[in-house]
Specification:
Layout: H1 6-12, H2 14-22, H3 39-52, H4 59-74, H5 88-99
Length: 100
């Protein structure tokens, strides 16, 4: 018998879906048989987990660490291979300069 990965069954569970609905959140999962729907976000989450870590002492600490990681490091300094080894901020500046 083929078993689904834990991640899928967790996010597809009725309890989890009820919590999302109660908070007005629409869940996002790949369409059946299409593993590329969420590939970009899954890659980003994997990068965050491996570079920043998974555990924090409080919600506030996690929020501050994630903000610092995304806004200060990931977007401003971290080089991205898909952008020619420059940061997203540098890529946007370059695009704006070329468009002008």
């Amino acid at each position: 018998m083929l078993q689904r990965p834990i991640e899928f069954t967790t996010y597809a569970s009725e309890d989890y879906q009820d919590v999302l609905e109660a908070h007005g959140i629409t869940g996002s999962m790949s369409r059946r048989g299409n593993c590329y729907d969420n590939a970009v976000m899954e890659s980003f989450f994997s990068t965050v987990k491996s570079e920043l870590g998974k555990h924090f002492d409080s919600h506030g600490e996690a929020k501050m660490a994630l903000f610092d990681y995304i806004e200060v490091f990931y977007n401003q300094k971290r080089r991205h291979s898909t952008l020619g080894q420059i940061s997203p901020a540098a890529f946007e500046r370059k695009a704006l300069t070329q468009a002008a």
